[in-house]
Write a structure and sequence with these properties.
This protein has four helices and four strands; from the N terminus they run αββαααββ. By secondary structure, it is α+β, with helices and mostly antiparallel strands. The longest helix has 14 residues. The two termini are 24 Å apart.
Length: 108
């Protein structure tokens, strides 16, 4: 089941596609509704295999899942944060990345 894309993304998607960094955007239930081409290339997973999935289960290995929950709790009040993690790839590898998160309200 795919998450509905917000209106603002119609205007932002072309800009996000030009970035050299991988971008993944999820809703407040952690369902992914956008990834850019750079993210697809980093993971080796096609967009169709990413959209609609649980972001935490997709991007984190089992051992990192507990760590990300602590990261989320620490940054919940701030609405943003950065942390080093490993991004699983299609071939079973682990790509070191810095995850930068920012919470946005629905009216933005």
């Amino acid at each position: 089941m795919h998450s509905e894309r917000p209106y603002w993304l119609q205007h932002m998607a072309p800009i996000l596609e030009t970035l050299n960094e991988g971008v993944l955007i999820a809703d407040d239930s952690d369902r992914i509704f956008f990834v850019n081409t750079a993210f697809e290339e980093m993971t080796g997973i096609p967009r169709d295999g990413i959209i609609g999935r649980d972001a935490l289960r997709l991007i984190l290995s089992a051992e990192d899942y507990t760590r990300i929950q602590a990261f989320r709790e620490k940054n919940r009040g701030r609405g943003r944060g950065r942390e080093e993690f490993f991004l699983p790839t299609k071939d079973g590898g682990r790509l070191p990345v810095v995850i930068s998160v920012r919470a946005m309200s629905r009216d933005r």
